[in-house]
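Please check this one:

***
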Amino acid sequence: MAMAMSDSGASRLRRQLESSGFEARLYVKQLSQQSDGDRDLQEHRQRIQALAEETAQNLKRNVYQNYRQFIETAREISYLESEMYQLSHLLTEQKSSLESIPLTLLPAAAAAAGAAAAGAEEGGAGGPGGRDHLRGPAGFFPGHGGAARDSQSAGEEGKQRTLTTLLEKVEGCRHLLETPGQYLVYNGDLVEYEADHMAQLQRVHGFLMNDCLLVATWLPQRRGMYRYNALYPLDRLAVVNVKDNPPMKDMFKLLMFPESRIFQAENAKIKREWLEVLEETKRALSEKRRREQEEAAAPRGPPHVSSQATNPFEDDEEEEEPTSPEVEEKVDLSMEWIQELPEDLDVCIAQRDFEGAVDLLDKLNHYLEGKPCPPPVKELKAKVDERVRQLTEVLVFELSPDRSLRGGPKATRRAVSQLIRLGQCTKACELFLRNRAAAVHTAIRQLRIEGATLLYIHKLCHVFFTSLLETAREFETDFAGTNSGCYSAFIVWARSAMGMFVDAFSKQVFDSKESLSTAAECVKVAKEHCQQLGDIGLDLTFIIHALLVKDIQGALHSYKEIIIEATKHRNSEEMWRRMNLMTPEALGKLKEEMKSCGVSNFEQYTGDDCWVNLSYTVVAFTKQTMGFLEEALKLYFPELHMVLLESLVEIILVAVQHVDYSLRCEQDPEKKAFIRQNASFLYETVLPVVEKRFEQGVGKPAKQLQDLRNASRLIRVNPESTTSVV
């Protein structure tokens, strides 16, 4: 019943807060007037807070669902865009194929037109064969009008002269005139738009040559003059019609991987002419190059050898000359897959089919292996090398740290494997390790710092060493069989990554001045995780030792100073009295503590009831020293041997010197006997335990501790001596 009332109250409160006329100030005023006191307001506040948390959870749930739908929609849009691009490409090819069918009748038509023109000249009537046919929008340069389409009667010199005249009006493109056989096909004004937001960028003028497209920008201060902007080879250019979407209309897109540009024509007619003339020029260029390749691959007879030759060196040269055409016969580039290879590579790169692109390259390399390299083959290789460069850039971007680092090291396998197949093993190794370094750095930086240091170190070690282990396994999978230099690079990277880990570790453990026991536990956890890398043959223990040795030395020195100061303070207040623990429970607890410290014969130092026949200073020193030794042994590795040993000796000397001094200065016989009993406990019980435990933890005895214990004989032989034994 109470739960039903609570639910109804929450529903009523939600409706009240969601109402359109809700005013927070008025609501709080009414609530204050109606409440019985502070408790009522607190309960109401809790209800509002619970409602806010419930609303926040609902919002998170809705955002997550919408986000998933958004991702799925974006993926579908991407697939659809790719399919539409392929469909547009196929339709363009079909159109080109259909338009090329009547071209077989052109030779006959050209012959008939020539006969008619000749007849017209004999009759004294002027015909169209003596001048160029002009087509295109108004405002084009003189001589070609708007559509500068040369007729068959125009000679190469006239075409070159027209091109020279036009390009003199464009700054920065004189190098174009160096290409032989290049002439202007079409030109006109265009407006360029930004591809993403469809914002107008600039006015440009396009010059379509028989093998390339030049884009020039207007110079406002110099009427009729332009500045060179870009040059695109037609064989690397794709033209896409952009559907009209008022006010954006009469547009078409030029695709030049990895960029694209959108241009707007003056009207629909000029846009159509641009699309048609671009496709026709591309088709003509492709047909021309195909014929050149067929002619280069066609067999030729051996050259005629003169019987008058008397120079033996000339004979050798003439005998060798016929061999090159025979070799060139074997390089057949007329196959369809070779002709379409550059375009197929562009499609694979655009669709992110990296494996397909590399397969095509392997197929071509296998086909051309061991064959000569005539000009057609060189030209094909130049085109393919450009695609290889583009493919490499895309794969490099896939491995860049700017990309998403989710998915772990396996997410990089695709790009790495294709770079290795392309012969870029060193670059693949460098990019893979750089990507993983960024991932490890991000994972450590995003790790939440907990209040408990040991809990944070557990999480830090799990995140770092798991990432390191996964990276090592993925590296071994990806680069198996490659040169050994990659493995050296991985070791260097692992050391660098370990330095990143130690920085975060030391900042949390040593810079925050944690206790020695906490630091020892944290170092122990790090060592255990580091030893797990030995399962894959990777031992980085020596690296973590080398990186931590300075911080551990500082921690041991700091804790040693604390113990020494505490011992000196107790020594200054020493009264040399027996300990009275008051209760049997306290005595039992002390016995357990001393037993855990390794003092097994502590029973002989206990008296009647709850008395202990030792000084409080000596007992406290024993517990503190053994605690220091136990924690220090957890931190121990060979580089710290002398540091730990010297710290122990300094700590023990403080107590030994105090006992020796008290024994020489005390005049009361009873107190002197009690002091001698405490000295006996130190030398005969505590020091052997320290020596034995140190040898167990380190693996070898400590001569300094043995010498310190042997020095006690002087006290037992001559207790009245005033000479210091130290």
